[in-house]
Structures are given as structure tokens and as C-alpha cells.
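Before the break, one more example. Copy the sequence into your notebook; we will annotate it together after we see the structure.
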Amino acid sequence: MLSHLFNRIIDPHDRAASVALLRGMLWLPSSLFGAAVGARDRLYSNGLLRSEQLPVRVISIGGITVGGAGKTPLVRHLARWLVERGQRVVILSRGYGRQGQGVAIVSDGSAVHLDWQSAGDEPFLLASTLPGVPVIVGADRTAAGRVAIQELGATVLLLDDGFQHRRLARDRDIVVLDSTNPFGNGRLLPAGPLREPVTALRRAHAIVLTRVDQGEALDPFHEQVQKLNPAACITELMYRPSGVRSLTDGTVQSIASLHGVPVLALSGIANPRSFEQTLEDAGATLLHRIRFPDHHPFSQHDLRSALRVADQAGARWVVTTEKDAVRLPAGADLSKITVIEIEVKIVKGEEKSILDFGF
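Here is what the structure looks like once it is written out:
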């Protein structure tokens, strides 16, 4: 499977001869990608390409690696924090993998108008779990921003995964990095997970390090960032499970209900190990794990197979993530499926320091 092979290529600890050979073969396309990224950066830095300014505050939450850093939970957390302070927040997302083109309103804050296939799984999840916060999808974030201001009255725009979308000027660039593997093998796509060189962190106003409870020593990372960007605010956070939700009736039990329970972990996300670690940390007995590629559209066959494996292994529940739950097929048997709900806990820093505005 290509996703599994890519994960091996970008894993700095995988030193198998075949993987090393593939990395070597990808050196040239990675170098060409780096040259293109560097040329684009210089065009913006020299003013030959210009960013368009919108008449509201624009905050980008993005990354320099592909998938799995934990941006979406942070977007949700900051959106709620801003709403509590009287802001009319609208989230703008590209809508990765969605069906359809152009700008579309996923939610106007009072109702969700698109399904996950038309919105993309992450925008649909945000729209479904953020009542009162509109969500718009569209590759052209500037056009989406105009819709947010003119039709929805936005006072703050949150760009979900917007660090590379430089055509829209922003007041605050927040970069999210996974402490368990901040830069992968340190190489650019396709030989590594980096969308830009690590030096791109110089553009960031704030850097948020996620999953610090699962990562290793953070001091070397702090030293590296301080050398690259001494002015950047560095915040550390963890994603804490807040409950276990039934997909049949929506009831939520405490996370303690997982303690000692035999489960099967079902996921189609970029970082399944973190999800599985969360289950084990909650005291669940992880009997089996089934992993699909990130954004995988689950079929009836996928779910029946997972339930069959769970029965054979003696698992009481099949546990999945919030993002995966929105992609489960309609009409499927969900009686044994539960969802881990996640909340953000900031362990170093605060929301105000991340945003650096007088909210």
C-alpha cells in the first residue's frame, strides 16, 4: 500500500536497505520540489507576488509537514475561545479530497448544509462540532474570505491548514508541529514529509507543539526553533480524551469507561499510533488495530470486516476517531462502534499568547 510505503520512507528510524534505496531514488524529485518551493518563497519575499489583504483579522493555523500534526483540534479549540470573547469567527478550509469545486458554505453557523463528501471530512467535522461557527471550503481562500465577510459577517477568519496559502495576507501565522516526529526524516516531498524546508519556520509568529505527553525530550527542538526564529512564541499542548461517544444514540460516557475494556482500534488518519497510544493510556486493552490511509472513505465491507475481526478477537467495542466517524457508511451497523472525543489541554503557554491579539 502506497501510504504504508510513504510512512516507511519518511520514518527516520527505518534503515532497511530497500527503503534507503527508495529515498535515494526520490532525491531528484525532492530537489526539484525544493527548488520550486524556494522560487515561490522568493517571489513573495521580494514583492513580485503579492498577498491580498482583507478588512478583518486573518489567522492561519498550518504546518510544514503533510498530515497528522493535530491542526484540526487546535482550530476547533481556538474558534471556541474566540467566540467566547465575542468574535464572529468563520473557518476557511481548502476541503481536501472533497467532491466539487469553487467556494461552498459547509455551515452558516446554524445548520450544516453539505455532507462530508462535498465538504471534506475535516471541514465537515468542524461544522458538526462547532455550533455557531460557520465553515467555508474552497481552494481560493481569498474568495472564501470575501464570502465569509460579506454574507456571514466574519470579524475573524481562521485558515485551517493555511501556512502555504500565501495569496491571502494574514495577521498571525501559527505553525503546528507534532512533538513525536516534528520533521520526519528532514526531507522534502516526496522523499520526506516536509512541504517546505524547516527554515520556513522563520515566517511563523507562533509555533504550537502538540502531543507533548507522547513526545521525547523537547529541549533540542526548542533550541533549534530559537536559532531559526527567536521571536516566535512556542506553546506546548496535549490532546486529552474527554469522553467516549456511542454512534447509535449519541450518549457520552467518561473516558474511565474504557479502563480494562478489550477494544479494536479502527482508523484512517495520518498518525494512527497517537490514537492507539491514547486508547492504551486510557487503560483500554488494545487487542487489534486496523489502519487505513488518511481520509479513507469507509465502505460497508470495511466496517463488516472490522466488526468480524473484533468479534473473533473478543473485543467489546470498535473504537475510532472523531474524523473517522464522519466517514463511516450510512446505514451501517454502528452498535459496537464508539468514538473517542478529544479536547485540547495547553500545558505551556496560553491561547492569548498563541493569537497575540487583544481579544
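The chain has a mean pLDDT of 94. The chain has two domains: 57-238+345-355, 241-343. Try to locate both features in your own notes.
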